[in-house]
Amino acid sequence: MKRLIVSILFCLMAAAAFAQKVGDTMYINVNSAGLKSSTGFFASTTGTVRYGDQIQVLELKGKWIRIRTPGNITGWIASSSLTTKRITRGNTANASAKEIALAGKGFSPEVEAEYKKSGGSINYAAVDAMERISIPDRDLLAFIEEGRLAQGE
User: Fold this and answer.
1) d(Cα 35, Cα 39) in Å, to the nearest integer?
2) What is the pLDDT of residue 114?
3) Distance, CA of 127 to CA of 139 (rounded, Å)
4) What is the pTM of this model?
5) 116: alpha, beta or left, given left = phi > 0 and alpha = psi -120 to 50?
């Protein structure tokens, strides 16, 4: 029983060490993201941050974090778009944000080529066509409201 309690305390202390706190310095880990005037996907945009930008944590609210950029722009961003790890900007001119994300998950052009060489015959044309579709936020919000769907967070 004593080991269980010690293990639980250790896990709680480790989790607290990785939790964001007001005043922390963090970095943007997505290609670009809009800062929102309040929490929620459909809030108006107050600015934009880019991959590797350093920010300061101002406030925490569930999955949202209010931040300040070095240019003194403030806004809310999803916590999943931030990391505590310092990001060094390298040469990503030849890689899209999606390619960087897929490579981070272990999927790369080399993996895809190996799959195709082993007889894989997936046609990505339909997926590529869907990825090119862009729906304005106002149209998406109108669809959600008209269908009486829950807006989520």
Assistant:
1) 10
2) 74
3) 22
4) 0.57
5) alpha
Residue range 26-50, pLDDT digits in tens: 999 888 889 999 998 888 899 999 9
- For residue 31, is it left (φ>0), alpha (ψ between -120 and 50) or beta? alpha
In one letter, which amino acid is 145?
E
Looking at residue 97, its pLDDT comes to 64
Which residues lie closer than 8 Å to 11 by C-beta, 6 or more apart? Answer: none
Do 49 and 88 meet the contact criterion of CB atoms below 8 Å apart? no
Q: In what order do the strands lie in the sheet with 64-68?
A: 45-50, 32-36, 74-78, 64-68, 54-61, 25-28, 82-83
